[in-house]
Hints:
This protein has helices at 2-8, 18-32, 36-58, 63-97, 103-110, 150-167, 191-196, 204-214; strands spanning 117-118, 124-125, 132-138, 141-147, 173-178. It is of the alpha+beta class. Strands 1, 2, 3, 4 and 5 form a 5-stranded mixed sheet that branches. Helix 2 crosses helix 4. It is elongated and about 70 Å long. The chain crosses the membrane at residues 36-58, 64-85.
Amino acid sequence: MARKSEQSTPKAPKEPGRIKQMWQVFNMTRRYDKNVVWIMALGFLLPIAAGLVVALLLSDGNGFSMAMWIVAGVLAGFLVALIILGRRAERAAYGQIAGQPGAVGAVLRSSLKRSWRGSEMPVAVNGKTQDAVYRAVGRGGVVLISEGSKTRTTRMLEEERRKVLRVLPNVPVTFLYVDYNDPDAVPLHKVASRMAKVKPSLNKAEVMAVSNRLTSLGSAGMPIPKGVDPFKVRPQRGR
């Protein structure tokens, strides 16, 4: 019986290898970013060209030295191409979920640097419009990020700032607007980088203390899905 049960137990699907994963990421990115191929090719060829120039100028006819410079250029080009792919893939992935409720939560869950603490659950939600406000704490103080129309969420942000200042009057509070219909708002894929540019005002111990203090404020129940995982979302079929 035990042998039969072992044979009937389905095996877990084998995870794709690293090269296959990179190929899948490249295909996904190329589907939404038509320029990624040319940008990656440029990033790959420029270090090789630089390696060739350096090899001709500094090798003095030494074949081994020239080969080493060329190999270094190829490796550098491969690294640059991978970096470009990673950044363009992240941008393409977030572009797929932009406009969906919970998209900002996905950024806070997956893209924040270690110096920041944020939750994928919002601290305030408008059930009718699905506008939401998210909160993060870091070296730059408290950052409140709105998701939805800027004209509607400004009041929500002000209310949340009053709550924060009520318990932490000396901590700076910064607003970020993620409005998909406003070209001047912060794009979804730039939320983490924009937070990193906020002027530091707290040390690590103070960040922890502020984060723990703010948990006493609680958070609103979110009547919409939690943050969408941009790297697991299925691509939309072309019409």
